[in-house]
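A note from the maintainers: we've had questions about how concatenated examples are separated. There is no special marker in the raw files; a new sequence line simply starts the next protein. For clarity in this README we add a label.
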Amino acid sequence: MPSMDDENVFRLPEIKDEKSCRRHSVIGLANFELPSLRKRKRKLDEDSLSIQSFDVEHKKKSRRSLLRVSSLANLLSPSKGSNKTGSDGFQRSISFKVPSSPASSKQSLTPYKAPSPSPAKKRLSRTWSDMMTTSGNMPKELSHRDIKKQEAIYELYQGEKDLAEDLINVKKTYRDSMKKLQLLSEGELQQIFGPIDSLIPVHEDLAMKLQMNRCPDGTTDRVGEILVDWVPSLKEYVTFCSNQVFGKALLDEKRTNPAVDDFLQRCQNSPFSRKLDLWTLLDGARSKFIKYPLLIKSIRKYTQSEDEDTHYLNEAIKLSERVIAEADQMAGEAKCRYFRCRISFLYDDEKCEALEQSSMLVCNGILKNNKNSKLHIFLFDKVLVVTRTVNQGGHQCFQVYRQPIPIEELILTDLKDGEVKMGSFRKTFGSGQTTKNVFRLSFQDSNKGQSHTLTATDEHDKRQWLQSIQKTLNGVRREEGDAQDSTTSKTSKTSTTSTTSATTTTTTE
């Protein structure tokens, strides 16, 4: 083997241009052999080669060694030249094994993503015609009026089934689970859920009776007598509705507990809840309860007037309206007690005697004043109170704003759209749009207190407020008229008695 010291034998050919670099590298490797290299004592992985493990003995020929290493690197790097096949074969024989670093492995990990929420459980909305079309037994002799009546009866039946299903879901999934997990006490559960156990049989009973009354062809002839017997059972809602204001307040308070809030949120995200929160499910029962007169009227609308069932339907409507009126009365009294305790005066000497005597909350809600500030208005049966919402000790309270107006001293003025400009000084005298849905509340004697110019959200909201206030005013005036008639009657009787006594005395003389 020739010696590496002989420079004449192993002179590398000169590289004339960059394109022939690949060819000269291969030729250079073919004309000489690598010098004997000394290996370090360490274990190498199979099929791996470390260039840094070579230690060249002769430092004097470092320039020549660098050229050889450069030639080796040219072999390892892919190129577009004509010697691609040979270089590929040489490259496959040598592999570099680079250990993966912890940093690179962490970057390759996919970040955690919360699972997507389950799809909501959709409730099928079926009509009587859909049911009959599916079964293939649609009677052909029915008129348009008869079909409408069957649709109204089936709507009542399907609504009872859906409501019973929701109440059972609330009872088992929410109330029983919270009791088992000891999230709330027995008393707290009773206040939030109310008499829910007694409501479920009410709706299951009507659904079963309507289904049993259905004819084999799928039609239902008469339901009036069934409804007259069933409507009195709706009195269970009187207690349920009167308890709602306290139940809602307690539920909102308990939501501040992370465990309770997490449980309710998980239930809401589950398919069985249809993405509805607990209070929406509970309040759905009350919403259905107040719609029974409308549902029965819809059946009566498509029933022949000479039909005997019309009489029973009219009776059922009267009974349902009576029960709803009783529930409204009890709910109003409960709301009156609840909000009356949360209305505070800035000074003790400002307390209103009419507020203490009030026993019924007619309505309440948020309106805006002429400064575009939100105010919470309470219309009681004895007084109208304007308040501002404040937070005291983590609880929502209502601080009285200006002097409350007793109903017997209240004057209601309906203002036309565009008659009053409201808002800031700039908006008032600017070219902005005029305010709509405005009305004014004031004292009969302007010296007793200031008036309130209020703006409702929309026309419907304004109409509701005007009707409620006017109805309360009429009730107070009616009571005053009855009191005056009673006083006049007593005075007349006293005068008649005195005249009779005088006449008797004269006769005796």
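[label: protein 2]
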Amino acid sequence: MSSALRTKPFGSKKDKKNPPILSHEFVIQNHADIVSCVAMVFVVGLMMQATSTLASIFIVMGHNATDPTDAATRGEPFLYESGWRDGPAVFFYTLICIIMHAILQEYVLDKVSKKLHLSKFKLSRFNESGQLVVFYLISFLWGGEVMLRERYAENMSKLWVDYPVHPMTFLHKLYFIIQLAYYLHMLPELYFQKVKKDEQSPKIQHSIAGLFIIGFFYFFAYRRVAIVLLTLHYFSEFVSHTFGLLEVFDKDEKYARFRIFNNIIFLITAFSTLVLSFLTFFTGIGKTNPTRGMLGLVIAFTIQGFLIFRFITSFLKSKRESKELASSSAKPLLKKPKSSEKKSESSKKSKKESDLPEADQNVNQKKVKTK
């Protein structure tokens, strides 16, 4: 046979587009397709009579509290409670979250970042904030829709009346299942996105904290007040990460002055959360169930106290850094020897190159070597 008919072996080092099957690189590149196939197994199982009962545990919302034989409930929406069958549902919708994460990353964020030619640091911030902005926006709109349908704003006593008998509508229950699934999907995404070890710790903490907090409020029947508090929190986080995205494109720091609006929104949200938590847990649930009321109040105040402490710390740190920059620029510049001037020029060049994309940095290094 002629050499023209010879092909490279599948998965060779020279063929970067086709890594070996079941290798780490193969799984990472094709994880969305693999997870989609796993999810399709459950969907196809739901269509077959022999396996529909088992597959429905993973897809259909379980623990229906509505009695279909009761004539009074006919025509009314089904109501649901929490229970062990929510575990398989969280697993299935975790697969859906992984798929949606990959779709958003590949078809939106990657295409935008390629046109912008961002540096590694800015690209990491752009991808993280881009994913979270979409999640926070959807969660905020979803939570607001449930609040309007249940009329929690018109009658706040619904947040604690008849506790702990607080059945959920379909949208209300699906909201919490998706929330748990999203925070759970953050853990395998560390592997799929090749996150560095030094950057994994805060992401793992974020995932576990979200799972614990939402799971606590969900299974302890604080679901009505939880969806209100989460909606307020997600609005604040949406604004914060929107400013984070703007800062990625802000080379001249035009949007830095508008950060005060983000601070004001956070403070209003924090104050509203503390007031609403006190009214619900202490004056509402605490009257009929003091133990549960005090437990919910302590958890809610602890979480909000941590968020306020983190906000104050970051605010003081930014103020300190801005003062240091202002004082250093105000000092008169002294003449430096030629050696120090050369060092400062080289450091400036390195800083400029760090803001460039990796390809441009390599080009600059090659130019220096040729000289």
